Q: What sequence folds into this?
């Protein structure tokens, strides 16, 4: 009887252990499936990306001029920042327009702004974007920035979904541009990234924006970014090869010189008219003109019967209530126009800006 009782207890214990083991195995399998599915959107997956907290907050910073062309884009950008800042999934902190005109303008009371000096006269050689790295150096040195991370953005960015902190600790996140090709330009890049530093593949196919990066790391990279930008501009071969994306290459090289690799996030941004759908991407970048005929067919390179191109408004803001695209135009373009219209309808004294334009980018 005693033996049978003991055998019964052993069997009961074994059954409990088997049930517990099955539960743990099932839990682990489900966890792996969840992580795998989440990785499709937020790859490489890290659950901290889905969480908000003060340690993950990033400061939204963009550089700008006092030209009307820059101002109206900044106003739209700031409008949508305020709309999405406190939505679930957002890790946005405060906002700063880094104004590198060296003087205040009429948007100081509307948009949080930090005024810095432009490069000495003539040093940018008409390439106004060269002021961007110098502006960041001054801002990082002089401003009181509470957040641990920084999002480097641009005036022609619109937040279409709440943006979490995509950086992983000390590893920043960037967007891979199809036209930034370090390997194809290895001969030129070796002037600034010598062989002893490593392979050219260490240079990421990115620009400085959009990038989410630790503030302390940006403080190290920014001065190098300035120096590389100026050296590239001074080199005729490099200047000719890289053209208007020169400072983007300069940031990529500067980061590599500091041993920094970015997480490449294609979902960071979309660029109409080439990207057709917004989906779960975070930033809409309207740098390209959108030209279509009335059948909804793209006529890129030829002015369309319907068009939206930011460069059509160099001297002042676009009018309110822009006409929507004809049927058949991609959802991304329709979304862009609707978001511009919403902003212009709600921003006070929208039509008040006018003046000269110094930059067309």
A:
């Amino acid at each position: 009887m005693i033996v049978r009782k003991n055998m019964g207890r052993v069997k009961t214990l074994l059954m409990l252990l088997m049930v517990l083991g099955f539960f743990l195995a099932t839990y682990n399998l489900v966890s792996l499936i969840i992580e795998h599915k989440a990785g499709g959107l937020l790859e490489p997956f890290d659950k901290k990306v889905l969480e908000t907290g003060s340690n993950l907050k990033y400061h939204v910073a963009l550089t700008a001029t006092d030209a009307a062309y820059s101002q109206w884009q900044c106003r739209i950008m700031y409008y949508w920042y305020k709309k999405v800042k406190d939505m679930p999934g957002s890790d946005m902190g405060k906002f700063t327009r880094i104004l590198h005109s060296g003087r205040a303008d009429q948007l100081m009371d509307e948009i949080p702004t930090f005024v810095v000096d432009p490069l000495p006269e003539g040093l940018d050689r008409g390439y106004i974007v060269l002021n961007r790295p110098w502006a960041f150096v001054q801002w990082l040195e002089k401003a009181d920035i509470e957040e641990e991370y920084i999002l480097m953005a641009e005036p022609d960015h619109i937040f279409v979904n709440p943006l979490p902190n995509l950086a992983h600790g000390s590893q920043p996140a960037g967007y891979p541009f199809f036209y930034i090709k370090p390997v194809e330009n290895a001969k030129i890049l070796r002037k600034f990234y010598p062989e002893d530093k490593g392979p050219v593949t260490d240079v990421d196919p990115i620009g400085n924006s959009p990038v989410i990066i630790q503030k302390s790391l940006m403080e190290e990279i920014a001065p190098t970014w300035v120096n590389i930008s100026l050296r590239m501009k001074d080199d005729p071969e490099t200047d000719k090869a890289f053209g208007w994306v020169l400072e983007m290459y300069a940031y990529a090289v500067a980061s590599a010189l500091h041993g920094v690799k970015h997480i490449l996030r294609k979902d960071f941004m979309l660029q109409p008219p080439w990207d057709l759908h917004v989906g779960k991407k975070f930033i809409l970048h309207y740098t390209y003109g959108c030209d279509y005929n009335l059948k909804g067919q793209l006529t890129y390179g030829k002015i369309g019967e319907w068009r939206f191109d930011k460069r059509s408004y160099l001297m002042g803001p676009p009018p309110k209530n822009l006409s929507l695209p004809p049927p058949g135009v991609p959802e991304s373009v329709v979304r862009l126009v609707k978001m511009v219209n919403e902003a212009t309808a709600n921003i006070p004294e929208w039509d008040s800006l006018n003046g000269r334009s110094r930059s067309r980018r």
In short: Residues 1-54, 355-361 have pLDDT under 50 and may be disordered. The first strand starts at residue 58 and ends at 64. Residues 63 and 98 are 5 Å apart (CA to CA). The two ends are 90 Å apart (CA to CA).
